[in-house]
Specification:
Radius of gyration: 21 Å
Distance between the termini: 30 Å
Structural class: mainly alpha
Helix content: 40-55%
Shape: globular
Number of helices: 9
Largest sheet: 4 strands, mixed
Order of helices and strands: HHHHHHEHHEEEEEH
Strand content: 5-15%
Number of strands: 6
Length: 288
């Protein structure tokens, strides 16, 4: 919750009203269909959680509420979504559509989770709510549970991402062995090769930025036969991972290793993406 507050500290809610009682919590700044798949996946998970949490509260099963939300916040948010999106949130230019979509998704997650936890973490959620929306917003304990839009539920997307996450787990497992052997430190030092036998899975992986999802500086997906010593992905057949180091220089801002670091003479230590972001940020500071 504290991390979300920090991330959202400069983000203005498009609808201008924190209350969820009147209906859908979705803001006006991002239509769900225009969001990247990763954000839509998180909204789908909120839709799934809504039914579980409402049922648990109806049955006075507070242990279930705590268990479900703790698992969601630890596994789905901290170890997955937030971990992946830190690069976008910290390093993309302020005008980036992807960054704005991530902020909107974090806003919706914050609202839902805070209101769901309010009957249990009474004082903490009150502090969070007032910190986010100000004293004029009123108490979180006067809020109703959010009305989750039906359009947030996307079982087909969730099935697709189940496959992606299994591949991601395989890449992570292979890189953990490299880290244990001290051949790499951060996963951003790596640019692994993922050997995929199944053509449909290769096509699926081609629709996303797998390096971003695996938090590596690069990644290659190939149908070539994998070497005998390749890391075997246990949860999905026909997938093997060969670790490799990323080529290029380390960007001083994003820590990604790319071949375009120094391409902008104004920012010789930054990648082209980060240099462009800094030009925009410096322009905003000058205007202010």
């Amino acid at each position: 919750l504290r991390w979300m507050l920090g991330t959202l500290s400069h983000y203005t809610v498009a609808s201008g009203a924190p209350s969820l009682a009147a209906g859908s919590p979705i803001g006006e700044s991002q239509a769900t269909t225009k969001m990247p798949e990763l954000e839509r996946l998180m909204l789908h998970q909120l839709a799934e959680l809504d039914a579980v949490i409402r049922k648990a509260y109806t049955e006075y099963d507070y242990k279930k509420v705590v268990a479900v939300l703790a698992q969601f916040m630890n596994t789905e948010l901290s170890a997955f979504y937030f971990d992946i999106r830190k690069d976008t949130l910290y390093c993309e230019a302020p005008s980036s559509d992807k960054r704005r979509a991530a902020l909107e998704a974090v806003e919706q997650i914050f609202r839902c989770v805070t209101v769901w936890l309010a009957p249990i973490l009474v004082f903490t959620t009150e502090e969070c709510w007032l910190s986010r929306y100000g004293a004029d917003a009123g108490s979180v304990h006067l809020e109703q549970f959010p009305i989750i839009p039906a359009g947030w539920r996307d079982d087909k997307l969730a099935t697709k991402w189940d496959q992606i996450r299994r591949v991601r787990s395989g890449v992570t497992g292979a890189l953990e062995l490299e880290r244990a052997a001290k051949r790499i430190g951060s996963s951003l030092e790596a640019a692994p090769v993922v050997h995929v036998v199944d053509a449909d899975l290769r096509a699926l992986l081609a629709t996303i930025d797998l390096a971003e999802i695996c938090i590596t500086s690069g990644i290659t997906v190939t149908d070539a036969a994998a070497p005998a010593d390749a890391f075997i992905v246990a949860d999905i057949s026909g997938v093997r991972v060969v670790p490799a180091r990323a080529e290029g220089k380390k960007c001083a801002r994003s820590w990604r290793i790319t071949t375009d670091v120094g391409s902008d003479p104004a920012y010789p230590e930054l990648s082209a993406r980060d240099a462009a972001a800094m030009h925009e940020i410096d322009g905003l500071k000058a205007d202010a």
